[in-house]
Design a protein that fits this description.
This protein is mainly β. The chain contains one helix and twelve strands.
């Protein structure tokens, strides 16, 4: 007779891959419409998975933002007729939490999970109108879903917002109802949404203290 006694083995690992999707802007021209004038966005992602639920993430994205007053029915915007287009590089480091236990290289965990993330970020925005570049500190946060194809590869879908602390990404300060300057700023936001593929690139196995080593008895 043969039987195996196995203990639980955690496998912290790192996966890295590529992102493709869209970027868009919310601000003085577009106060609330999600996925307004989306532009192509590309990026790279690295995640270090400490446990089945907790990960450190590092992202670097490239995208574009644009807006045009003439896309809206507001009479003041039609008179103002302002438009802009920018290119931006966006990066962040932050924390990701899986709602279900998930490790890319472990069959002991679920094959898919939803997750949330929050981070601290930095962006460099280049205006196509003025040719000037500005940098910004951001607070990225968002939600996602990922599915493990096998022990090496994960497919994911993610939507994240970036809160900025600047009201001039679109070249406008927040106007009052009559077009005059308003003291309360409505800082501009932007978003990335898309799909990604990541691949396991590093894994370190270690045994939980007090766990019996796998053995075979005959």
């Amino acid at each position: 007779m043969t039987f195996v006694i196995e203990g639980q083995v955690f496998m912290p690992n790192t996966d890295a891959g590529f992102f493709a999707g869209a970027s868009y802007y919310i601000g003085d021209i577009n106060p609330r419409r999600q996925f307004y004038n989306p532009e192509l966005a590309l990026g790279v992602m690295v995640k270090h998975n400490f446990t089945e639920h907790h990960s450190l993430r590092l992202n670097a994205f490239w995208g574009q933002l644009n807006g045009n007053d003439l896309d809206f029915d507001n009479e003041y915007q039609k008179t103002r007729a302002h438009s802009f287009k920018t290119t931006l590089a966006d990066c962040h480091v932050g924390y990701e939490f899986n709602f279900s236990p998930y490790i890319i290289g472990s069959r002991q965990t679920t094959a898919h999970t939803t997750y949330i993330f929050a981070a601290v970020g930095y962006s460099l925005v280049l205006s196509s109108t003025t040719g000037m570049a500005t940098d910004h500190v951001t607070i990225p946060f968002g939600v996602g879903f990922k599915y493990r194809f096998n022990e090496k590869m994960t497919f994911g879908v993610e939507w994240g917002m970036r809160k900025t602390f600047d009201d001039k990404i679109d070249g406008l300060l927040n106007p009052g109802p009559d077009g005059s300057y308003a003291e309360t700023h409505n800082n501009d936001w932007y978003s990335f949404a898309g799909v990604y593929l990541t691949f396991r690139v590093f894994e370190k196995k270690f045994k939980c203290p007090g766990v019996i080593e796998p053995r075979t008895y005959k």
